């Protein structure tokens, strides 16, 4: 664990670092302080579960870590880049290149076959048609779906659907904001 102060740069092995991260929702009559200064460090190859009671701020934190939202204050460093003060279009690029989400719901396109569903993020990443087909096919083979590439989501079992979402996450770390349990309030 790095002793981190404002103005420092994270060590290269720290893939995610938040420093005094806050997120407030201004409801007009009320200010909701969903995150009140969260400082976490996650190293490469580390698996982390975020747990806490309902309303404690897990999804808010996951939205920030996943670059879907920006903090009210504090710093967020992803892979040695300070992303907490980036604009929306830069965040969209980072989401595409750096972040793999495995959603609780599968978010597969119903009318596209498994190969096309896996290929989709690579289209947005600007990869050529041939390389993305090859990569998507290889990724599906790795999860045992080499013989199901031309199946639409409703022609796959539940587990096969879930497995076909995994290769869509370009990096191996995935986010799932599904854990609700007893734990600290952020
Ligand atoms: N868009 C929003 N506007 C206003 N308040 C919000 C908004 N989103 C979340 N909140 C509030 O912020 C707090 C944290 O919400 P969050 O969704 O992060 O909780 P959670 O830990 O994911 O809960 P759950 O386990 O129920 O999913 C809650 O009090 C919630 O009511
Ligand atoms: Mg939640």
Explain this structure:
The protein has 186 residues and is an alpha+beta fold. The chain has helices at 58-65, 88-98, 114-124, 129-142, 158-165, and strands at 14-26, 31-43, 73-78, 81-82, 100-101, 174-175. Strands 2-1-3-4 form a 4-stranded antiparallel beta sheet, with helices on one face. A two-stranded parallel sheet has the order 5-6. The longest helix is centred in the last third of the chain and has 14 residues, at 129-142. Residues 58-59, 177 line the site of magnesium ion.
**Average predicted confidence as pLDDT:** 85
**The CATH fourth-level homologous superfamily of the largest domain:** P-loop containing nucleotide triphosphate hydrolases
Shape: globular
| CATH architecture field of the largest domain | 3-Layer(aba) Sandwich
The number of domains is 2
Q: Termini, distance in Å?
A: 19 Å
Number of helices: 5
Uncertain ranges: 171-186
Radius of gyration: 18 Å
Strand content: 15-25%
- How many strands? 6
CATH domain class of the largest domain? Alpha Beta
The chain-level structural class is alpha+beta
In sequence order, what are the helices and strands, one letter per element?
A: EEHEEHEHHHE
CATH fold type of the largest domain: Rossmann fold
- The percent range for helix content is 25-40%
As laid out across the biggest beta sheet, the strand order is 2-1-3-4
State the major sheet: 4 strands, antiparallel
Q: What's the oligomerization state?
A: single chain
């Amino acid at each position: 664990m790095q002793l981190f102060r404002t103005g420092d740069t994270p060590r290269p092995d720290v893939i995610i670092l938040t420093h005094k991260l806050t997120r407030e929702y201004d409801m007009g009559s009320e200010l909701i302080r969903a995150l009140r200064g969260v400082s976490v460090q996650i190293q490469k190859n580390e698996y982390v579960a975020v747990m806490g009671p309902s309303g404690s701020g897990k999804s808010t934190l996951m939205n920030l870590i996943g670059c879907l939202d920006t903090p009210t204050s504090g710093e967020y460093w992803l892979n040695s880049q300070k992303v907490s003060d980036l604009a929306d279009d830069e965040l969209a690029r980072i989401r595409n290149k750096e972040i793999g989400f495995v959603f609780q719901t599968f978010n597969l396109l119903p009318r596209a076959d498994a190969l096309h569903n896996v290929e989709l993020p690579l289209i947005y990443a600007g990869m050529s048609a041939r390389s993305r087909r090859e990569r998507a096919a290889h990724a599906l083979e790795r999860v045992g779906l080499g013989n199901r590439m031309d199946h639409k989501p409703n022609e796959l079992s539940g587990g096969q659907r879930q497995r076909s979402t995994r290769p869509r996450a370009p990096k191996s770390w995935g986010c799932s904001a599904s854990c609700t349990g007893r734990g600290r309030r952020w």
